[in-house]
Specification:
The chain has 495 residues and is α/β, with parallel strands linked by helices. The chain has 15 helices and twelve strands. It starts with 48 loop residues before the first helix and ends with a helix.
Length: 495
């Protein structure tokens, strides 16, 4: 049978073909810029509207999203995003306001931000919260800045090193390095906890603090968390909690109650703000009482108390020793805060607790179904995610091959090769939004792939086979970006 190659959008172009008719101008025409600033030719296709619509609709079908199917990216919490979030963030009072408006005209926005601060404090057990940071890593940097400011205010300038477990998130060392601090890596023990002997040896009067992801990237809740916190604080350090995995703790454990001094929240993970394609993220930071005065400014506060007839007047307040502004204006308001506010409002305290319970249940169910097929190096009850090895004895199939083959089974691959302490790591987080039927189909696919790895390894080496494009070279794609779908023949000349 002959192969029919579908023409590209450029090849469909025909001179004079129009997709839109512009109305006559209702304002005076102005002169064009000087000729030396004008291009004589702009190689854009000339198409009818239907051609353009079909082109972009076709491209959209190449994408995979959480609306298409299961997205088990460990550490990312790619849960379903309720569509009501989109409705609320587009309400005119949120959508059409500007951060430079007088505060009297944006009281609804400020009230939402104030309540969001209060809710995050209640959820986490912290004394203060800033909504400014634009993402999780930005929140990390904000938290480390506050830790440094705290020690500087006490003239404790010899504290220059941060303790970071080997099962922490990879952005933690980067945030520390940006401030010129040194990183001391603390290994994990055989059960996936912080090694207490190594921690004891590292604790001295040069420690700024410790950045601990709990549950960590192995999906393990540290069984010695109270001992870890006390050891760091006994040497004068502060405890930083990486809140990226808060999805396992909602309504069950409050990091502030465990003794943490600072923690960032990933609203785009825990509270269902979409975060594919790089944003918008949102990384508020909560702090204990001893760091409240160092929070970024401004915060939203009540500047005039209300009464039975009047609502309070919300405005901006500046902490006593604030580290200053971390972002233009007040964080990702519509893109992050309104969506997260909606999500928390819908669920309430009991609903948030159920989120964590089902997230943990789903992860442990998958782990139980797969442990007899795949090696799980830290095989104990996990939290919201778990890590297994994507390699089999006597086979040259690797984790990457398994992930590529999963695409033929219509599943997005899990996280590969992270955390680094697990050989050929496959990191799986089902989230609370997937039902048992989906989890069973996913487990069945992984079990079937394990059999294929032994009997038909080349099938995996060459996967995927059913996607619009075959196996990609991700390293080359990242280093040699081509941000358009088609290049005209005279591209080099046009450059």
């Amino acid at each position: 049978m002959a192969t029919i190659v579908e023409p590209t959008i450029f090849e469909l172009s025909s001179p004079g073909r129009l997709g839109v008719t512009m109305p006559a101008s209702d304002v005076p025409e102005t002169a064009l810029p000087p000729k030396n600033l004008l291009r004589s030719d702009l190689p854009l296709p000339e198409l009818a509207e239907v051609d353009v619509v079909r082109h972009y609709t076709k491209l959209s079908k190449f994408n995979y999203s959480v609306d298409d199917g299961f997205y088990p990216l460990g550490s990312c919490t790619m849960k379903y995003n309720p569509k009501i979030n989109e409705d609320t963030c587009r309400l005119p009072g949120f959508l059409y306001t500007h951060p430079l408006q007088p505060i009297e005209t944006v009281q609804g926005n400020l009230a939402l931000m104030f309540e969001m601060q209060e809710w995050l404090k209640e959820i986490s057990g912290f004394a203060g919260v800033t909504l400014q940071p634009a993402a999780g890593a930005h929140g990390e940097f904000t938290g480390v800045l506050m830790m440094a400011a705290y020690h500087k205010a006490r003239n404790d300038t010899k504290r220059t090193k941060m303790l970071i477990p080997d099962a922490a998130h990879g952005t933690n060392p980067a945030s520390v390095g940006m401030l010129g601090m040194s990183v001391v890596t603390i290994p994990s023990d055989s059960r996936g906890n912080v090694d207490l002997k190594a921690l004891e040896a590292a604790c001295d009067d040069t420690v700024v603090g410790m950045m601990l992801t709990n549950p960590n990237t192995l999906g393990m809740f540290d069984e010695n968390i109270e001992k870890v916190v006390n050891m760091v604080k006994d040497c004068g350090g502060l405890m930083y909690g990486d809140g990226a995995n808060l999805n396992a703790l909602l309504g069950i454990v409050r990091p502030g109650d465990l003794g943490f001094d600072v923690m960032h929240f990933n609203l785009h993970k825990t509270f269902s703000v979409p975060h594919g394609g790089g944003g918008p993220g949102s990384g508020p930071v909560g702090v204990s009482q001893r760091l409240v005065d160092y929070l970024p400014s401004p915060l939203v506060g009540i500047i005039e108390e209300g009464d039975d007839d009047l609502e309070p007047l919300y405005g901006f307040v500046t902490p006593k020793h604030s580290i200053g502004r971390m972002k233009a204006f007040h964080g990702h308001f519509g893109g992050g805060l309104v969506r997260a506010y909606t999500y928390i409002s819908m669920h309430g305290p009991d609903g948030l607790k159920a989120i964590s319970q089902f997230a943990v249940l789903n992860a442990n169910y998958l782990q139980a179904r797969l442990r007899s097929t795949y090696k799980i190096p830290y095989d104990r009850i996990c939290m919201h995610e778990f890590v297994m090895e994507g390699q089999f004895e006597g086979s040259d199939v690797r984790a990457l091959d398994i992930s590529k083959r999963l695409m033929d089974y219509k599943f997005h691959p899990p996280t590969n090769y992270f955390p680094l302490i697990v050989h050929e790591a496959l990191m799986i987080e089902p989230t609370e939004t997937e039902n048992k039927d989906t989890l069973d189909r996913f487990a069945d696919a992984l079990i079937a792939i394990a059999e294929e790895a032994k009997s038909q390894p080349d099938l995996l080496h060459n996967a995927p086979h059913s996607t619009p494009f075959g196996r990609m070279d991700e390293v080359k794609a990242a280093r040699e970006l081509v941000l358009c779908c088609w290049l005209p023949e005279n591209y080099e000349t046009l450059k």
